[in-house]
Design goal:
Length: 74
């Protein structure tokens, strides 16, 4: 399952492993239990490269990142 970024107003950023269908639903902060909104990014660039030509390591499209052992990024 993909890992999404969320931002708690009190505790800061955290990651949550969730189904794609649940990605936009608020997540409970693992530290305080408060409801946190998903951090969204702009549209991915074509080819996965930034305007400077750099590719963020471990970052995929749709704002998700991959963990070790992931076969879709190899």
């Amino acid at each position: 399952m993909p890992v999404y970024d969320y931002e708690c107003a009190d505790c800061g950023a955290f990651e949550a492993v969730r189904r794609i269908a649940e990605r936009d639903d608020p997540a409970a902060c693992p530290h305080c239990g408060a409801t946190a909104a998903r951090v969204t990014i702009g549209a991915p660039s074509v080819g996965g490269a930034s305007s400077s030509g750099d590719v963020a390591e471990g970052a995929g499209s749709y704002g998700m990142s991959h963990r070790g052992g992931c076969f879709c990024c190899r």
